[in-house]
Amino acid sequence: MNFAEKLVELFSTEKYILPFLEGLKMTLVISLGASLLGLVLGIVVALVQIAPKSKAMAVPKIITSVYVTVIRGTPMALQLIIMAFGILAIKGFPLTVTAILAFGINSGAYVSENIRGGILSVDIGQTEAGRALGLSRGTTMRKIVIPQAIKNVLPSIGNELIALIKETSIVSMIGMYDLTMAAKDVGSGSKLASYVVPMTAAAVFYLAIVYLITFGIKLLEKRLRAGDKRSKTV
After folding, report:
1. Do 60 and 48 contact (CB within 8 A), yes or no?
2. Shortest CA distance to 18 belongs to which of 222, 182, 141, 137?
3. Do the Cβ atoms of 183 and 202 come closer than 8 Å?
4. Contact (CB, 8 A) for 178 and 168
5. Domain boundaries, position 17
6. How many secondary structure helices (H) and strands (E) does the chain include?
7. pLDDT tens-digit profile of 16-39?
8. I need a surface site. Which of 42, 64, 161, 234 has the fewest CB within 10 A?
């Protein structure tokens, strides 16, 4: 059989495809959980960093600054290993939760910078208009500034999500069964030309996930632009 025939055999053979589906499930669970955690954490950190200087905000600003610097300045693989075998090396603690926390914390540092940049890109007049209408700073930020900032940084957040999904391929380092581990498993127990065919199959799965996310981001951007056009015509 040639390479294409072996790839078709892999996708059409139950004993080969089942491990991939199991690995795909784990990859999606980690990616979804980490992306949600990263988004929430990123927004909180961004809001702390752009908050006016005061005694009350001095310590939070230092903490978030150190957090972003350390996380962005160290490899994801090291962060995952430290989290799994150091910070959360608790007997019986779920590795899935460990991976979600590790990737979520990592993603939050990058998302915070995207959100911060997006907030700063919103015209200061928007904030002033909200305050002139009697809205508090928090309400102005939540209802006026952040929605516009999200639209501005949506492509960047989409890129971070895509990067996050691909980075989850290293969870096999802590013994988790994801897509990459499934490919290794199938490659070691089959005659499909060593690891080349199963690794290619894993790449197809990753490519499909990334394509769906890219399509969803573009669709969301299109709808947001359409909403802006409608509001301007009213």
Report:
1. yes
2. 182
3. yes
4. yes
5. 3-233
6. 10, 0
7. 889 899 999 999 999 999 999 999
8. 234
Q: pTM of the entire structure? A: 0.87
Amino acid identity at 141: M
How far apart are the C-alpha atoms of 37 and 163, rounded to whole Å?
15
Measured distance CA(88)–CA(52) in Å, rounded? 35
3-class state of residue 94 by DSSP: coil
Q: How far apart are CA 193 and CA 19, in angstroms?
A: 17
Two tokens at 89?
A: 């090396």
Length of the chain: 234
140-177 confidence digits (pLDDT tens): 877 788 778 878 888 888 999 999 999 999 999 998 99
Residue whose token pair is 């516009």: 148
Which pair of tokens denotes residue 147?
A: 């929605």
Domain count, the chain: 1
- What is the CATH number for 66? 1.10.3720.10
What tokens appear for 120 in the block?
Answer: 């700063």
Q: Residue 149 in contact with residue 115, Cβ under 8 Å?
A: yes
Classify residue 165 by burial, with Cβ atoms within 10 Å: 0-12, 13-18, 19+: buried
What tokens were used for 92? 């019986």
Q: Output the pLDDT for position 189.
A: 67
